[in-house]
Design a protein that fits this description.
Largest sheet: 4 strands, antiparallel
Radius of gyration: 22 Å
Number of strands: 7
Strand order of the largest sheet: 2-3-7-6
Helix content: 40-55%
Strand content: 5-15%
Mean pLDDT: 89
Number of helices: 12
Length: about 425
């Protein structure tokens, strides 16, 4: 029996659209099908990433609601499984895989984006807790998160990479102010977060005090693999996990027919089926026989397939240094090609966009082409992947320095205490 046959048989016996999202995710998470790459003793099946992509497609093709999306399943859970204590795994992993708690990533700061290790948010020990002060930015779905993966400086008197700790941080507490940042798509996927005298338990420090840089790099590795070409679409979900937006108590079947997600989510089809969307657009607009359009459609298909085959090579045990970074760069290139190709196909319609549900209805009625609106949103969203999760420039630096062995730019960052380094801004 293949993986697809196995998960399909399970879905036939267990999927019920009349269950609440909470009930369905509990059933899916405890079965191991929500996070099949995770270890079997922590709600997974020990599968490869390529097999997990097959599982994800099988769930989608069956018409069932997929696992809880967002950064809990994509980043927090895998990181805690690698670095967390047994108590921390028991405390956090079940609530992640069943969608009971939603997570965000509290890494970047206004003065520490590309130079993440230069972050200045401080955590000061106070008995069995830490008091946290600072500001984070580009925090995806922070407005809906119950917890955050917080990087904070716990020792300013050592070099910057050595004085960082990684905490499971409660977002719903006094002293945490989340302010959505609205993008040109009209959505608010990102936020800035102001933290003033907020608290985090000492036993919520993942991987040990001042060992946060190593833990953060594990998170970033999972992020690049998940967001890169061929990595699947673990970041997206029609229903949002956690207690804040209220999706858990809604009917699971109500989320299986949506083509877009609500405010705070990524545009539909960005990760999964944009290639087929563009082919449909080319047919609808009479450009499927245009030689230049066909050439770029073939190029797009080739890039997508290269990402898929790279994942299959990794599944077969191939050791490809920098594979995650290359996948991230490839996804940026795919999104740019989708943007340029799609806008060439739809022409002037690409200048039209809606920002509210009412405006969407008016625009669809006026143009008679809902696919064009999706293409415009994808185009507006396209610069994002080249920035979030580490910019394209950072990915190239990592490949150059860690894979090709090229010399780093000279600096004293690894020997000078963070307190004595010049600060941005």
């Amino acid at each position: 029996m293949t993986v697809v046959d196995e998960v399909t048989a399970w879905l036939e016996a267990n999927w019920d659209p009349d269950l609440t999202v909470r009930e369905w995710w509990e059933r899916l998470g405890e079965s191991g099908w929500a996070a099949p790459t995770w270890p079997a003793d922590w709600y997974g099946k020990g599968m490869s990433r390529a097999e997990a992509v097959e599982v994800s497609r099988a769930v989608r093709d069956f018409g069932a609601l997929g696992p809880p999306g967002g950064l809990g399943l994509l980043l927090a859970g895998p990181t805690i499984i690698v670095h967390g204590t047994e108590d921390q795994k028991r405390r956090y992993v079940h609530d992640i895989v069943t969608g009971k708690k939603g997570w965000c990533q509290l890494f970047s700061e206004p003065g520490a984006g590309s130079d993440l290790a230069g972050l200045g948010t401080r955590a000061v020990k106070d008995g069995e807790e830490w008091i946290v002060n600072g500001q984070k930015v580009w925090t995806s779905t922070g407005q809906y998160a119950d917890l955050g993966m917080l990087l904070a400086r716990t020792d300013p008197d050592v070099p910057k990479h050595q004085g960082i700790s990684y905490f499971a941080f409660e977002m719903r507490q006094p002293g945490v102010d989340v302010r959505p940042l609205r993008e040109m798509t009209g959505r608010a996927l990102f936020n800035e977060v102001f933290i003033t005298d907020a608290r985090v338990r000492d036993d919520a420090c993942i991987g040990g005090v001042n060992n946060g840089w190593a833990v953060a790099n594990t998170t970033l590795t999972f992020e690049r693999a998940g967001l890169g070409a061929g990595g699947g679409s673990e970041g997206g979900s029609a229903a949002l996990p956690g207690t804040v937006r209220g999706d858990l108590d809604r009917r699971a079947g109500d989320f299986t027919e949506r083509t877009t997600v609500g405010d705070g989510g990524t545009p539909a089809n960005v990760a999964g089926s944009a290639e087929s969307l563009i082919v449909d657009l080319a047919r609808k607009h009479g450009k499927i026989d245009d030689a230049l359009i066909r050439q770029d459609l073939a190029r797009l298909h080739a890039l997508v397939e290269i990402g898929r085959y790279t994942t299959l090579r990794l599944k077969g045990g191939a050791d490809i240094p920098g594979a995650g970074n290359m996948a991230k760069l490839s996804m940026s290139e795919i999104l740019r090609l989708q943007r340029d190709l799609g806008l060439r196909i739809i022409g002037p319609l690409g200048t039209l966009h809606a920002y509210t549900p009412a405006e969407h209805e008016v625009l669809d009625a006026a143009t008679g082409d809902a696919l064009a609106e999706l293409m415009t949103e994808l185009a507006l969203f396209s610069p994002g992947p080249s920035i979030y999760g580490g910019t394209d420039q950072i990915q190239r630096n990592i490949i150059g320095e860690r894979v090709l062995g090229l010399p780093k730019e000279p600096n004293n960052d690894r020997v000078t205490p963070w307190r004595d380094l010049p600060k941005n801004g």
